[in-house]
Write a structure and sequence with these properties.
This protein is an alpha/beta fold. Helix content is 25%, strand content 30%. The protein contains eleven helices and 16 strands. Bound molecules: zinc ion (2 copies).
Length: 309
Amino acid sequence: MTRRSNTAFELLILGSSSAIPSDSRHPSAQILNIRDRLFLIDCGEGTQNRLWAHRVRWNRMSHILISHLHGDHVFGLPGLLTSLSHLQRTQPLTIAGPLGIKNFVDNIFSHSRTHLSYNLTFMELDSEVEGMVWDDGLIRVRWFPLNHRIPTVGYRFDVEETYRKLKIEKVSSFPIPVNRYRDIQEGKPVSDSGGNIYQADELSDLIHYHKSYAYCSDTRYFESVLENIKGVSVLYHETTYLEELSLKANETGHSTALQAAMIAKKAGVGKLITGHYSSRYDDLMPILQECHSVFPETILGTEGLRLEI
Ligand SMILES: [Zn+2]
Ligand SMILES: [Zn+2]
């Protein structure tokens, strides 16, 4: 049992475009802040500029999770990794992604004779199976297969903890020193100034917290993901096209807004966030409306959107 000092579980969208960016839309990248540990999910071109623009303290990144090796998800990586070195980073950094991610980075750094100030560790993931990327007892990160044109994985983040919440009116009605409140939150008995002893259960409630986020980009409509993303608090699922281009979506390994909404509904998620829009759509409202027709709890994912999970 630990005291709960930090409750952050926040998503920030840095890029929402598919292959061709524009002046207002940037390729895929998201930052997930979990208790001040930062996970970067995908790293399209210009991601480091977006991190500066949104004042993210990106040296706190511990992991970069890459969905697949298409350029709009990975071409920002060499520059970002090099900048971290110019900023004198010393903490190690883990990059997870499908097979080939290590070669991709190693080759670029070999040809550019780049040497980093910190250690990079690679986790090359088998995109045919699911598995665990990270588990520290509080945060679990899993990967799972998606269905695109090249090996692609999605990610699921679960944050789960049990903590004590003070019954503050009751606690303050006894002459218990404020500096002992921390002991109650840690489950220890405390005594008041008269020598009376109270058990932690009398003065606090045991709360079970569990929230989750899943990232699915890029993928065709793929029902196999349902078991991987079942019941998540928030789902990001690509919505590259409107349903009228469903044939094109299938050919290119993408989903329509309607398909993303169907996945969200079938998986019983709390909220759906859209993204990875084709450059043909200036106005994104039709994408949102198409999702709403199936899944009303849809939020339009756009650059700078911050969402508490
Ligand atoms: Zn893409
Ligand atoms: Zn792709």
